[in-house]
TrEMBL record:
CDD domains: HP_PGM_like (cd07067). The active site is at H7, E83. Substrate binds at R6, H7, G8, E9, T10, D11, W12, N13, R58. One of its GO terms (cellular component) is cytoplasm. It comes from Kocuria palustris PEL. It holds the Pfam family His_Phos_1. It comes from the Bacteria. This is Phosphoglycerate mutase. InterPro entries: His_Pase_superF_clade-1, His_PPase_superfam, PGM_Phosphatase. The lineage of its organism: Bacteria, Bacillati, Actinomycetota, Actinomycetes, Micrococcales. GO terms for molecular function: phosphatase activity. SUPFAM superfamilies: Phosphoglycerate mutase-like.
Length: 173
């Protein structure tokens, strides 16, 4: 089984700013969210063989906390799991935007079709590197939401910090 997990909170999340590939670290709330999510998994009897992450520190630290708490292998980072680039929009506030304002801010962003192709390639590589294993991929909200929208044909709302979403085999190919 493969699943996505969103990283814990950063100061930019709290301030409602686009992070993208800007390497904003977890804050203490984010570290606690990672510990709490891992404990919930333990309490619910969930287990993972390995945890892999995006190379950005907020995802990597979340993954390391979860792996350590669960006693899972930390399987390293995958460049394809990095967050969507928002270009010159990174650092700008994203609260209370109209659809038109949001669309304008997305002009310099990585195109969604490129993000989906990159995410699929990364997921396929993770599956290939960890055959038959249960792997938790700690990554970013935009990547998860856009990839799941594409693969499932449904519209996924905002992915909350440390939310875990299982992937369907047919999405991976």
């Amino acid at each position: 089984m493969l699943a996505f997990m969103r990283h814990g909170e950063t100061d930019w999340n709290r301030a409602m700013r686009f992070q993208g590939r800007t390497d904003v670290p977890l804050n203490e709330t984010g570290r606690q969210q990672a510990r709490d999510a891992a404990q919930r998994m333990l309490d619910e009897g969930e287990s993972w063989d390995a945890v892999v992450t995006s190379p950005l520190s907020r995802a990597r630290e979340t993954g390391q906390i979860v792996a350590e708490t669960l006693g899972a292998e930390f399987g390293g980072t995958y460049d394809g799991l990095i967050e969507r680039s928002f270009g010159s929009t990174e650092g700008k506030h994203n609260e209370n935007l109209t659809p038109e304002e949001y669309a304008e801010l997305m002009v310099p962003a990585e195109p969604e079709d490129e993000l989906v192709a990159r995410a699929l390639q990364a997921v396929q590589q993770v599956a290939s590197d960890h055959p038959g294993r249960d792997v938790l991929m700690v990554t970013h909200g935009s990547l998860i939401r856009i990839a799941l929208n594409h693969w499932s044909g449904d519209t996924h709302p905002r992915i909350i910090n440390t939310q875990v979403l299982q992937l369907q085999e047919e999405w991976i190919g």
